[in-house]
Amino acid sequence: MELHISLVERRNIAAELYRQLRQAIVDGRLLPGEALPPSRELARRLRLSRTTVTTAYTRLTAEGMLTGRVGAGTFVSPRASDTAPGARPGRRAGDRHTALRARAVWDAVPLATPYATRAEFDFRSGLPDAAHFPHERWRRLLARATGADAVIGGVYGVPAGLPALREAIARHIGVARAVAATGDDVVVTSGMQQALDLVARVLVAPGETVAMEDPGYGPARRLFTSLGLRVHGVPVDEEGIVVREIPHRARIVYVTPSHQYPLGTVLSLSRRRELLAWSLEHGAAIVEDDYDSEFRFDGRPIEPLQTMDAAGHVIYVGTFSKTLLPTLRLGFLVAPPGIREAIHRAKFVTDWHTSLLAQATLAEFIATGLLARHIRRMQRIYGERRELIRTTVARDFPGRLTIVPSSAGLHVAAVAERATAAEMTVVAERALAA
Question: Are 203 and 339 in contact (CB under 8 A)?
Fold first, then answer.
């Protein structure tokens, strides 16, 4: 790599060159065995005499920091770290000046580190089984996408996403979920979390209220809070969110109607109509997070809120983290006409566009029927596991755990009838330790 030496406004050039080279070795920026530029080349680049450079190299060699090989060049000594007294990392922020401090709201946002570990028996919600992902087919499509014009053109893409992928998503959710959308309505995002971020940026200002289910999806709550929004929890019963408890001041209502997170209940048809009427009366938006309902095991699905919406108040949000893999970081939203342009602009200023290579691969994956085939296969596998959990809980925990009825999704919830929250926390900690 290019070795950066700063000699601007330095008086003792030879001593400064020696000091900066030595510090780069001490800090670990130059690693044992790495080659330094030839003295003649470094002298030319820094506009110094070659003698100045060779003097610094010779001094560092004498200290055991560098080693020379005849005909090969000058290298950092394999024992440089042992011979460097007082080795320390680079200067820390705050060593000489007052350190920057983030807003206090970020202290309350945990990092999702538990999701970065593996478990022999994995009961974490929302994680598909990566062992059954069609890796080889995906690799072939990825290799093909690498040669596609949209990728090798070397230019930035449209913020809303590749037209081929937007059309493919619109067709897929139109068939699988009866969502009324065209490719123009779809915006490709870097996961569902970014979709929520875009909606919040466009529709609400700091200090305004967002209503969401309680209990509800923690990452969404933390996102809204980080944007300076007031988050109001609305209770959930056996029919879903209790609409009469939504505060009148709410500008957005975030719901998971097809498979409530985390309980798994389905928002009843009467509640759906009530919620749509509420949004129309108060001029509020509904964000419908349909994160994993494509895995349906029994019962007849109720129409999505987006399909029932005649006023353009529902924003439909989906993700491929559950149907495929979280590592892909691919999601989407279906924007009503009134906010479509604003969503495109918000996506542009956020990250311009999601990876074109991943988009092109996914577009082909959907168009060739591989996504539908994968979902059908996984629905059978997950259905068997779901039934095993349900029967095991009923057999081994009678009177202690009661399964919450649900008909779709990647997780089931159970209510601990006689245990306290503190006791269940201990159970979870033991499970994690094991």
Answer: yes
The distance of Cα 235 from the centroid of its chain, to the nearest Å, equals 27
Q: In tens digits, what is the pLDDT along the chain, a chain of 434 residues?
A: 778 888 887 788 989 999 999 999 998 889 999 999 999 999 999 999 999 999 999 999 999 999 988 888 999 998 876 655 544 444 544 456 678 888 877 777 777 666 667 777 888 888 899 999 999 999 999 998 888 675 667 788 899 999 999 999 999 999 989 999 999 999 999 999 999 999 999 999 999 999 999 999 999 999 999 999 999 999 999 999 999 999 999 999 999 999 999 999 999 999 999 999 999 999 999 999 999 888 988 877 789 999 999 999 999 999 999 999 999 999 999 999 999 999 999 999 999 999 999 999 999 999 999 999 999 999 999 999 999 999 999 999 998 999 998 888 999 999 998 889 899 999 989 988 88
User: What is the pTM for the complete model shown?
Assistant: 0.85
How far is Cα 319 from Cα 326, in angstroms, rounded to an integer? 9
